[in-house]
Amino acid sequence: MPVDPWTPGALRPPSSSYHPLDRTWTEAAPPRRTRSPLRLHLMLFALTVLSTWMVQALGTGGWSWIYAFYYVGQGGDAGLMVVRFFDALAKGASAGFEYSFWLLFILTSHEFGHYFAAKAHRVKATLPYFIPLPLPPLGTMGAVIRMSAYIPNRRALFDIAVAGPLAGIVVALPVAWFGIRQAVHAPVQALAGGSLYFGDPLIFRIFEYFTLGPRPEGYELLIGPMAFAGWVGCFVTALNLLPISQLDGGHISYAVFGSWSRKVATAVFVGMGVMMLFNGPSYILILALAWFAGIGHPPTMDDSVKLGPKRVALAWLALVIFILCFTPTPMAEWQGQ
Predict the structure, then answer these.
(1) pLDDT per residue over 307-337, tens digit each?
(2) Residues 53, 143: one domain?
(3) What is the pLDDT of residues 186-204, one digit of tens each?
(4) In which order are the strands placed within the sheet that holds 129-132?
(5) Full domain range(s) for residue 178
(6) Crossing angle of helices 154-181 and 93-120, rounded to 10°
(7) How confident is the model at residue 8 (pLDDT cuts 50, 70, 90)?
(8) Within a domain: residue 202?
(9) Shared-domain flag, residues 122 and 182
């Protein structure tokens, strides 16, 4: 007999968090009927706007104030640091707003994809909690929505999981396209050593070819804030589509393969480990978090429900999106040539 999950005393599975960078299912007390305060969501969103704007503005306006901060520690003038800090913010203000707007547009689309899919299947979910992080290079840790893990069946699990990456990538691809149209090919000699280098996903190479033409030998793609926001959107999408643990890809994998998804996750862990031997430990943190969260997946209320051909086709589409957006070395220090 069906059990109302909101009846006091009913058995409940753990609640889950949907997070662009770290999705975990955690044991929790029975959910209450109370709603999270709207002002908390708005406050976190505003702080994330501020942190993403500030990080990009300082990156564009210059980091010389950091050196001034060092000299303050050596007995230098503290006023110099303050002046340089606000001067950098002023110089990079426009770039900061551009990056913040497009990045949060992508992340918000991603999270509301999950939110509306959950509502469509009558699964309780909160509005997104954005996570500000005023540190370079991103300025945010993404966003989280809290939802009941009382998932009715594998179709509902699939729909909720795939909706986020699809909604996010629908926004991220045009942002990347128009951002790359504004980019330029720069000679590697002009790039300073110690700069942060972002690996090219396949979709960026395709967009670059059709907008700027083939990249000349000895040149790199120099992108602006809009293209960088598109890059982050593609990176977050690929990261989430890894078929492991409680990432979106892990939920999709369980919906498609059932108990076999554990073997898929194990193979991906091994493959990523081998890849990092040759390309550096860029993914070590997310793999460690996924490992501690567990590579297994809890069952839905009715695992006997099949996906059907349309959802299987969407699963193949998700795989294609992953291939287009994935890069083996997302970030590295540019050493120059």
Answers:
(1) 999 999 999 999 999 999 999 888 876 655 5
(2) yes
(3) 888 766 655 677 889 999 9
(4) 25-26, 15-18, 140-148, 129-132
(5) 169-337
(6) 160
(7) very low
(8) yes
(9) no
